[in-house]
Amino acid sequence: MATIRLCDMFVDNGGSGLIAFHGQSGDIMMQGATEKTTQTIFNKINDYGFDMGGAGPAVRTGMSCVGAARCEMSNTNEQAAHRRLVNAFLDDMHRPALPYKMKFKVSGCANDCMNSIERSDFAVIGTWRDGIKINQDAWKAMVADKGMDYVIDNITSRCPTQCMKIEADTSITIDNKNCVKCMHCLNATSPLAHNYVKDASEGAILATGDDKGVTICMGGKRTLKIGDLFGTVVVPFMKLETENDYEVIEELAGEVIDFFAENALEHERTGEMIERIKSDRSHVVL
Q1: What is the CA radius of gyration of the chain?
Q2: CA distance linking residue 121 with residue 229, whole number of Å
Q3: Per-residue pLDDT tens digits for 224-255
Q4: At what angle do helices 2-12 and 38-47 cross, to 10 degrees?
Q5: What is the per-residue DSSP string for 227-275?
Q6: Residue 123 in contact with residue 117, Cβ under 8 Å?
Q7: DSSP assignment, residue 107?
Q8: CB 118: neighbour CB atoms within 10 A?
Q9: CA–CA dist 228, 19 (Å, integer)
Q10: pTM recorded for the entire structure
């Protein structure tokens, strides 16, 4: 019903009636809108009870993956982190006062379905710091079915740190100290891809560990002044479970925004700011 109301209101105010939901930015795009009725549309959406997101040189509308709601790879409460960051910085979304845009994104694992590492200034990535859990019976069943060549070619040989080893009895061992949590082995053995687990209570063939938390990366962005940048890890691991944990991440995000506001140049993202001040510390306000 909310979508129908938006379309009807849009037609009544000079629009085409077509709307598009944009996954990368979390926007509802109203196609065919004109400048003449923009404020009227804005007011109507507010009347419906929707809170308009950020635009311009401001904190932009945050995004998170669907996470634990339907994904077995989730390592944190994505929606709780997302909501905490949005609520904490609503004023910075509604009142543009930054050198350029600032984006928060939350992904539940390093598969990063939100493209947080590539496209956000402050990326929260779910991870774990204990060992990958192994269902050896299910692993052996997969090896027996697919064959050793398939398993080596498509799983173990593609481990970026070569930390996986197949034993003589076809069981698998993982050197977790060298595991970089790239997610490939978990994806390749996902219950969605293979049916070697007889009962859901047995768990997946390979699964994330139990000591879960998040990694914080900064500086990701698309092409602007100096080309694309991946986010750089600034916090390798932190728990995100208690109220105190959420206060810590909120405080860190606030410090990042303040630093960006004081040190970035106009039309410069955090990644470009970091690259620039690495060679010229005189611009840094501590």
Answers
A1: 23
A2: 10
A3: 778 899 999 999 999 999 999 999 999 999 99
A4: 150
A5: --BPPEEEEEEE---SHHHHHHHHHHHHHHHHHHHHHPPTT--HHHHHH
A6: yes
A7: E
A8: 17
A9: 29
A10: 0.84
Alpha helices in 71-189, H assignment, sequence order: 78-88, 90-94, 116-119, 136-146, 148-154, 184-188
Amino acid 9 reads: M
Tokens of 230: 């991946």
Exposed/middle/buried for residue 239 (C-beta within 10 Å: 0-12, 13-18, 19+): middle
pLDDT tens, position by position, 197-210: 655 556 689 999 99
Mean pLDDT, rounded, of the chain: 88
φ, ψ of residue 224 to 5 degrees: the values are -150, -100
Q: How many Cα atoms are found within 13 Å in the side-chain-facing hemisphere of 41?
A: 24
Could you give the CA distance from residue 217 to residue 134 in angstroms, rounded to a whole number?
A: 28
| 111-148 confidence digits (pLDDT tens) | 999 999 999 999 999 999 999 999 999 999 999 999 99
Highest mean pLDDT among 94-98, 101-105, 281-285: 101-105
**CATH numbers and ranges of domains, the chain:** 63-129+212-279 (3.30.413.10), 133-207 (3.30.70.20)
Residue 26's SS3 state is coil
Helices (H) and strands (E) in the chain, counts: 10, 11
Q: Residue 123 CB: number of other CB atoms within 10 A? A: 29
Q: Which helix (H) or strand (E) holds 44?
A: helix 38-47
